[in-house]
């Protein structure tokens, strides 16, 4: 029996998810370094701003435009100086701040995430080589990943000290992960899985 096209698509997709997830988790294991890099980038931004020799009128127009954008996007995260102007450096620092609480849990979830990412890759490979336990393994991996995503949402929702940008993009990533897990679960459970329930014969390995 020829391997169904949906199995190839899901298999490749799970391998890609596992690979990207592993890379992301390895980065999260070094969350402290990410925080240090952010501080360096903010410091460089301040240096380039102070070194600017643009015309004062042009500077004022750019500054006013920047102030409006910051206030519109980040509201109470805005930090102002003694002249009631937006302090760009301090504001950016507050917006992208990663709290110790978040760093601790990022690292904890990263270790679990690496294992799940490896299982994603294994499941994807099994979709391509026809194993009887492919479906059970893939459903189990997706269910665990879904539970982990919900747990991440609950844990990070309790973080009130990190910057708004960090929380915003973190939530987007969690929502997207949950959506993908649910979508793949539905596809696997709904589509015809008879190919993986049959005893493999020699020609199946060449499909």
Largest sheet: none
Provide the structure class. mainly alpha
Radius of gyration: 24 Å
Q: Ends: how far apart?
A: 8 Å
Q: What order do the SSEs take from the amino end to the carboxyl end, as H and E?
A: HHHHHHH
Share of helix, binned: over 70%
- Summarize model confidence as the mean pLDDT: 78
Q: Bin the strand percentage.
A: under 5%
Could you explain how this protein is built, in words?
- The protein is built from seven helices and no strands.
- With 207 residues, it is mainly alpha-helical.
- The protein folds into two domains: 5-33 and 99-199; 35-95, no CATH class.
- Helix 5 runs antiparallel to helix 6 and helix 6 packs antiparallel against helix 7 (164-190).
- 20% of the residues are buried.
- The model is unreliable at 47-56 and 203-207 (pLDDT under 50).
Task: Describe the SSE topology.
Layout: H1 5-29, H2 31-50, H3 56-74, H4 88-95, H5 100-129, H6 134-157, H7 164-190
Summarize the structure.
74% of the residues lie in helices and 0% in strands. The protein is mainly alpha-helical.
What tags apply to this protein structure?
single chain, 207 residues, mainly alpha, 2 domains, disordered C terminus
């Amino acid at each position: 029996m020829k391997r169904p096209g949906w199995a190839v698509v899901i298999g490749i997709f799970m391998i890609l998810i596992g690979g990207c997830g592993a890379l992301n988790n390895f980065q999260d294991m070094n969350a402290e370094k990410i925080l240090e890099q952010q501080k360096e980038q903010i410091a460089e931004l301040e240096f380039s701003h102070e070194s600017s020799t643009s015309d004062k009128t042009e500077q004022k127009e750019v500054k006013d435009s920047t102030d409006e954008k910051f206030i519109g996007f980040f509201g109470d995260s805005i930090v102002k100086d003694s002249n009631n102007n937006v302090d760009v450096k301090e504001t950016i620092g507050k917006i992208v701040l990663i709290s110790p609480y978040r760093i601790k849990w990022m690292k904890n979830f990263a270790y679990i995430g690496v294992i799940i990412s490896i299982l994603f890759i294994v499941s994807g490979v099994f979709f391509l080589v026809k194993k009887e336990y492919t479906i059970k393994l893939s459903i189990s991996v997706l269910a665990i990943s879904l539970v982990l995503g919900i747990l991440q949402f609950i844990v990070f929702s309790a973080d009130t000290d990190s910057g708004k940008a960090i929380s915003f993009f973190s939530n987007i990533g969690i929502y997207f992960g949950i959506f993908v897990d649910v979508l793949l679960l539905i596809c696997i459970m709904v589509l015809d899985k008879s190919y993986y329930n049959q005893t493999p014969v020699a020609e199946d390995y060449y499909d």
